[in-house]
Amino acid sequence: MSNVEAVIKQCVDVLTRIKDDDTVPRNIRRSADNVKNILLDTKESPAVRAASSISILDEISNDPNIPLHTRTLIWNIASQLETISVDG
Description:
Layout: H1 3-19, H2 26-40, H3 46-61, H4 68-87
Helix pairs in contact: 1-2, 1-4, 2-3, 3-4
């Protein structure tokens, strides 16, 4: 498994945890699921998938209703995805 694939898999795992967390508002869980689907779509290059995902993650991290622990997870995912844009 390449480094890019490992990063994507790790991000998808965290997004799945967010999606399944009932303490997270529904709109944020829906966005997390949307990002997960973008990352798993192999028709696009990893760099394009990462860029699209970062855009959505940035948007939801600014939601005032997002729990603090979830915001931290979102920032961590975005940071990991930024490495793909450079390497990918």
